[in-house]
Design a protein that fits this description.
Blueprint: E1 2-3, E2 6-11, E3 17-22, H1 33-44, E4 52-57, H2 76-94, E5 100-104, E6 107-109, H3 111-118, E7 121-125, E8 129-131, H4 145-153, H5 155-164, E9 168-169, H6 170-176, E10 181-183, H7 188-200, H8 204-219, H9 222-238, H10 240-250
Parallel strand pairs: 3-4, 4-5, 5-7, 6-8, 7-10
Antiparallel strand pairs: 1-2, 2-3, 8-9
């Protein structure tokens, strides 16, 4: 299925993996409103069979940021509402129905880094580079980057990127936390699919706790976080699937953790 600037398909034996590919390759997959709204719609209408999603980019780049050729002159109120539209769309990615993996290559710049930071796992290949050029263009991040990116790399590093135009290569990006995995050029999508299939095998309630509850616990004061954790632990372990999985482990029917 293709939407405006996006190709969507289901993969896996039970169609449990949603593959979402940005298809503006000629524009380095730069984001415009139509693409952002299509992303929001896909996550709002995700088929019930899906247990994990992979977002990738067509061509040589994941996403080179905002399509400045479509940047409209707006007054302050219009600019505010436009930014909030992006917030709503990327919140559907971060707090949608399933864990999301970003398969990164080439440019992960500006709004592309904002999109990647809304995903739960980021897999970068050796061609990946990261930048936030908004500072040199007289604008500011508006897709949630000022909230999400400092949580990955800290305020000081994001400030440096925007003040100086610093570009991080793939290795340094993984080192500071922009990606959790670094793989050979051309293999980010394959690694992302491998992880997605593994994630799809988890109990759905546990995946929900990790994508919806854990980030909120991290934002809570410790005493509130401990209480939220206790409630989520009680809910998760009471699920029939959790009881079956624990029983399988105790009876020796489940694999034990092995050294990597």
């Amino acid at each position: 299925m293709s939407k405006k600037h996006i190709h969507f398909e289901l993969q896996g034996e039970q169609q449990q993996i949603a593959v979402i590919r940005l298809t503006r390759g000629a524009k380095r997959n730069a984001l415009n409103d139509a693409l952002v709204l299509s992303l929001r719609h896909l996550f709002e209408t995700m088929p019930a069979s899906v247990r994990a999603a992979v977002i990738a980019g067509e061509g040589d780049h994941f996403c080179a940021g905002l399509d400045l050729s479509e940047l409209q002159e707006r007054d302050a109120g219009q600019g505010l509402h436009h930014s909030r539209m992006w917030h709503s769309a990327l919140e559907c990615v971060q707090y949608g129905p399933v864990p999301v993996i970003a398969a990164l290559h080439g440019a992960v710049v500006g709004g592309g880094l904002e999109l990647a930071s809304a995903c739960h796992i980021r897999v970068a290949d050796d061609s990946t580079f990261y930048a936030l050029p908004e500072g040199s263009r007289g604008i500011f991040v508006g897709g949630g980057g000022s909230v999400r990116i400092p949580r990955l790399i800290g305020v000081a590093r994001m400030t440096d990127m925007m003040l100086t135009g610093r570009v991080y290569n793939a290795m340094d990006g993984e080192r500071i936390g922009l990606a959790q995995y670094l793989v050979a050029a051309g293999t980010a999508f394959d690694k992302s699919m491998e992880l997605a299939l593994r994630i799809a095998g988890n109990a759905p309630l546990t995946n929900y706790a990790l994508t919806h509850v854990l980030p909120r616990i991290a934002d809570q004061p410790a005493d509130q976080g401990f209480m939220t954790e206790a409630m989520m632990a009680a809910i998760a372990q009471s699920a029939p699937e959790a009881k079956d999985r624990v029983k399988a482990f105790l009876e020796g029917r489940a694999a034990k953790v092995q050294k990597a």
